[in-house]
Amino acid sequence: MSAREEILRRIERVESARGARRATGDGDVAAAYARIDRRYLRRHHGGAGDGGILDLFAARVADYRATVLRVRVSEVPGTLAERLAAGSGSYGVPSGLPAEWTSATRAALVRDPPVSSLDGLAGAVTGCAVAIAETGTIVLDHGADQGPRALSLVPDRHLIVVLAERVVADVPEALERLDPRRPLTFVSGPSATSDIELTRVEGVHGPRALEVLLVE
Amino acid sequence: MTGRAAREDGPGRGAMPTYLGTPSFPDAARRAVSDARLRGNLAHATTTIRARRAEAVAELDDWAELREAGRQIKDHVLEHLGHYLRLLEEKVTGAGGTVHWARDAAEADRIVADLVKATGETEVVKVKSMATQEIGLNEFLAEEGITAYETDLAELIVQLGDDRPSHLLVPAVHRNRADIRDIFLRAMEDVPAGLTDSPAELAEAARRHLRAKFLSAKVAVSGVNFAVADTGTLVVVESEGNGRMCLTLPETLISVMGIEKIVPSRRDLEVFLQLLPRSSTAERMNPYTSMWTGVHPGDGPRNFHLVLLDNGRTATLADDVGRQALRCIRCSACLNVCPVYRRAGGHAYGSPYPGPIGAILSPQMRGVGSEVDASLPFASSLCGACYEVCPVAIDIPEVLVRLRARVVEDGPRRPLERVAMAAAGWTLRSPTRLALAQRAASSARRVVARGGRIRRLPGPLGAWTETRDAPAPPSESFRAWWARTGGREEDGG
């Protein structure tokens, strides 16, 4: 008997010994699943279209000791140019990043850098799929404006442009917007650890600097 | 599968390292309690995290409802585990992954070793994983000529210190910053000159030490926090970015998960992504959570293997009371609030799963045949703090009492202790009886105790005190003290 059959048989044995009403089809399981009590809140702060959501998001991201800059659309190129000029070296950008965002940038940009070159870059600039105000989380689904997972992981600085319409109030709304068939990375502040005396220290293996441009 | 000692039709009991020479809990704990430095490190770390967890939880008005939903989702999965395992297998396979099944630790170890060998590699990078601790994977791989590099900071500290983990989340919680500096200076070949004990410098040293490994690794091994059955999506929750490195950069990824880690649907993550970070590191959200579904062309590993591990979980499932232990999401909140764990430390539990949750998991998964497993259900004052903080409402005291009865029936034969434990079990099952017994003992204290120790107990219990003093009952019982102070105290050590 294969391990698979054996394990499934052990489970069936437990189920029949418990005298549990055996689910005969997917319908029964689905009905039981639908009965799960979900009286928790869909969001903890703010109603629909509440501008307070953006304030909350900015504050919660800053709590993780990330840098948050609130800008208008027209200010994105200038602000980004300024931020990138503050470092030295070249920056990786995904080919789908809107070209106007980096139109004022003088720093060297590498479009779709190969993984082997990432360790030599000063940072990466990406967009995001969704952002969560309650937890100060930014979610990448690694679409065209975000690039593959390694791009925003290996370089030491990660600059993310977050459009206001991508910001949702809370975790449940964020998951509804995401496609689980894509790779997803939830980022809440810079890389950190609690492994020394259970106290948070920023800066381990992932980017040690997280800079967020919140575009309103 | 012809795994080393894989049983064809075993009872579903599991195996995991009973750390060699592990004495019963009382013996190990006595040694640990007399180690003032260990006690100081533990008290400092757990006191800090306890207060912060309480704040993080209080921030959400609907914590009780989230906790109830978490409990029900987990119970639902355990009730329909066969269905969800088949569904997960189908979805992972459909997304380009390969699913393997392992009855026990030996079989899982063999599967992973063979998969690594098939790549021609002799090194793997690892993300911290309780499942691979449980199956003793690193040790097995070493026997097979494969070197496993732990990349989580605390795991690295344990590995470099030739030590054992003592906490679910922070395996090196028994080490303070000065200890960690000493270990790095001694065992990290590329340690920066003049390394101090500042946490930022220690983290930087780990970053530099592991970077080349991440960039060159061809094979990674991980655990799994959640597996979404209806999409085949795997979830790993972490802080440092070492997880992202391992899940993204190598060509081959092998993930080992206990069969209970399933959630039915993506929607369920909205519950657990709120419950887990606040319970474990007291954060609104942990720095990084990675989700992947099979293989993503052009992004990340080209080969993905998922190993589904039983190793005593189906045996645990069989007990109506004990099966709730399988709801555990490994947050470690129960360790941080446990008055016994805080003093005894994680090593005394003699298994990869320390603390209150370990005291109910290990004896169920391994059985109560050994001294240490038979003693674990007694490694508790049943104060209930663990249940209060558990994000999936595991009634740990209830399971402990259940297991105490099982030890009395099936454990190692010690007639006198059986009688005493049966009496204790009777007393402990009822708060009223316990309170009465404690009050009686406190009165007796004035009569028999000399210098805080009872030299010899009367009657048949004298045999117990032949080899040890029994501590005199305190003037205030633990339950009364906990109720009065909530455990706030300055721990002298």
Automatic annotation (TrEMBL), chain A:
<dbReference type="InterPro" id="IPR003741">
    <property type="entry name" value="LUD_dom"/>
</dbReference>
<feature type="domain" description="LUD">
    <location>
        <begin position="125"/>
        <end position="215"/>
    </location>
</feature>
<dbReference type="Pfam" id="PF02589">
    <property type="entry name" value="LUD_dom"/>
</dbReference>
<dbReference type="InterPro" id="IPR024185">
    <property type="entry name" value="FTHF_cligase-like_sf"/>
</dbReference>
<dbReference type="InterPro" id="IPR037171">
    <property type="entry name" value="NagB/RpiA_transferase-like"/>
</dbReference>
<protein>
    <submittedName>
        <fullName>Lactate utilization protein C</fullName>
    </submittedName>
</protein>
